[in-house]
Design goal:
The complex is a heterodimer of chains A (about 160) and B (about 280). Chain A has about 160 residues and is an alpha+beta fold. Helices cover about 30% and strands about 15% of the residues of chain A. Chain A folds into 2 domains: about 70 residues, Ubiquitin-like (UB roll) (Roll); about 70 residues, DNA polymerase, domain 1. Chain A has 5 helices and 5 strands. Chain A has a 5-stranded mixed sheet, covered by helices on one side. Chain A starts with a strand and ends in a 5-residue tail after the last helix. Chain B has about 280 residues and is α+β, with helices and mostly antiparallel strands. Chain B has 3 domains: about 45 residues; about 110 residues, Uridine Diphospho-n-acetylenolpyruvylglucosamine Reductase, domain 3, CATH 3.30.465; about 90 residues, Enolase-like, domain 1 (2-Layer Sandwich), CATH 3.30.390.50. In chain B, the strands form 3 sheets. Chain B has a 5-stranded antiparallel sheet with strand order 4-5-8-6-7. In chain B, helix 11 runs antiparallel to helix 12. The model of chain B has no long low-confidence stretch (mean pLDDT about 95). Classes of the chains: A alpha+beta (about 160), B alpha+beta (about 280). Chains A and B meet through strand 4 of A and strand 1 and helix 5 of B.
């Protein structure tokens, strides 16, 4: 079936299988930041934003994004020009193996879009559905709070 | 990443179209709202999927002093809604904040939680305690208390009908919700939702529900009767805890044993009643 949607601000017109998981579609489109971890919505590695809300792409079907805006990490920043939120993760030492990082960054992005002065508890709640086996979470929370500070200082583009 | 056996996907435009498609597919059709449960399990028999998120069932509003919530409203939308936040001292938000994690709450819908009715779910216990009713459209329009529906074969009903709205009645009192899970984001090993109304210094009405026993949440009418007419006091909470621990029907599953559930049910009911009474007195 044919669907139209917006991927990282670029219109897409695609023919997809009705039962195609969004996760596999996005990876086929080259969005390799979208990872398959558990495949059951528990780990958060496949998180993307749909219409500004973080969702599990492993639990969505491609046809469900008809007419919607999808944002993956590729739409946030690049290696040469990282988004301030990504830079905060690097500066805070919040990245180790990196498998969880795209999902972590996107749930943090959703939080900071609505609240640029979150408490430590609010950050912990926002990332509570994203599992990290390396960092122990402290550095990730530090990174989100640093990015929030930069946003309040007008340093987000 | 498994693929489903789904061969067709429809974006229904209204309830009539959704019902017509559902009827045409028979057992091979299924409604889709949040979709949280669809891809979690093994591929099923579903051939045609009917997306009902665009048929106008996502809204929250006050109704007859209580609250009316469209069936495809997500838990996040309810959490952000001022009327839902204000309903009976914010009990819905208290419950929904303990359901899964934010990205799943962005997807999951109230109607989906009602129809899926997982025994370990937080929401079925709260719906029963709060006396919620569900409206649906099928061959005919219907409405029933969720508690009554859960006593029968409700899954058959929703194979040929669309849940449209969940109605929460007004309560002159307060509710509290207690849950124990292995981790912050995990499902309940046991949960309890209790409410009380205080008049002239005594309990005028009480609602006591316990869920994940491991069976789905049910009210404990004998515990409610034991509360009515009593003056709220420490010894009363102890009596109710003992009563629940003596009479609640619990069982074993791979998550927890019956002995632990029996003891903990009394503790959770006591905690919920104490908090509800404190809230009711404010």
């Amino acid at each position: 079936m044919k669907i139209t949607f917006n991927l990282n601000r670029v219109p897409q017109y695609l023919d997809v299988e009705p039962g195609e998981p969004l996760l596999s579609l996005l990876r086929l489109l080259g969005m390799k930041s979208v990872k398959e971890g558990c495949g059951t919505g528990d780990c958060g590695a496949c998180t993307v934003l749909v219409n500004g809300r973080a969702v599990r792409s492993c639990l969505m079907l491609a046809p469900q994004i008809q007419g919607k805006k999808v944002l993956t990490l590729e739409g946030l920043g690049t290696v040469d020009d990282p988004h301030p939120l990504q830079k905060a993760f690097l500066d805070s030492g919040a990245v180790q193996c990196g498998f969880c990082t795209p999902g972590m960054v996107l749930v943090a992005y959703e939080l900071l879009l609505r609240n640029d002065n979150p408490t430590r508890d609010e950050v912990a709640e926002a990332i509570s559905g994203n599992l990290c086996r390396c960092t122990g979470y402290v550095k990730i929370v530090d990174a989100v709070l640093l990015a929030a500070q930069w946003k309040r200082e007008g340093r987000w583009r | 990443m498994h693929r489903t056996g789904i061969r067709r996907f429809h974006l229904a435009r209204d309830v009539e179209e959704a019902l017509s498609l559902l009827s045409a597919y028979g057992d091979g059709g299924a409604l889709l709202a949040g979709g949280v449960d669809l891809l979690r399990g093994p591929p099923g028999q579903v051939e045609g999927l009917i997306d009902i998120t665009g048929i106008g069932l996502s809204q929250v509003g006050e109704a007859r002093g209580g609250l009316a919530v469209g069936a495809t409203t997500t838990l996040t939308e309810i959490l952000k809604n001022p009327a839902a936040s204000a309903y009976v001292g914010g009990i819905l938000c208290e419950v929904f904040r303990q359901v899964a994690v934010p990205p799943l709450r962005n997807m999951a819908t109230l109607g989906g939680a009602l129809v899926s009715a997982h025994p370990w779910g937080d929401i079925p216990t709260a719906l029963v305690a709060l006396g919620a009713e569900v409206r649906w459209r099928g061959e005919r329009e219907g409405k029933a208390p969720v508690e009554e529906l859960y006593r029968g074969e409700f899954r058959g009903l929703f194979r040929s009908a669309v849940a449209t709205e969940i109605l929460f009645p007004p309560w002159n009192g307060a509710f509290a919700y207690e849950k124990i899970g292995r981790a912050r984001y995990d499902i309940a090993l046991l949960n309890s939702c209790c409410g009380v109304g205080i008049r002239d210094g005594v309990v005028a009405w009480a609602r006591v529900a316990v869920g994940a026993r491991p069976d789905r949440g049910e009210r404990l009418p004998w515990a409610e009767q034991a509360l009515v007419g009593q003056k709220p006091r420490e010894s009363l909470w102890g009596e109710i805890q003992d009563l629940v621990q003596g009479q609640v029907e619990v069982g074993d599953d791979r998550r927890a044993g019956a002995v632990w559930r029996r003891h903990t049910a009394g503790v959770l009911v006591r905690r919920a009643l104490v908090r509800a009474t404190e809230k009711a007195g404010r």
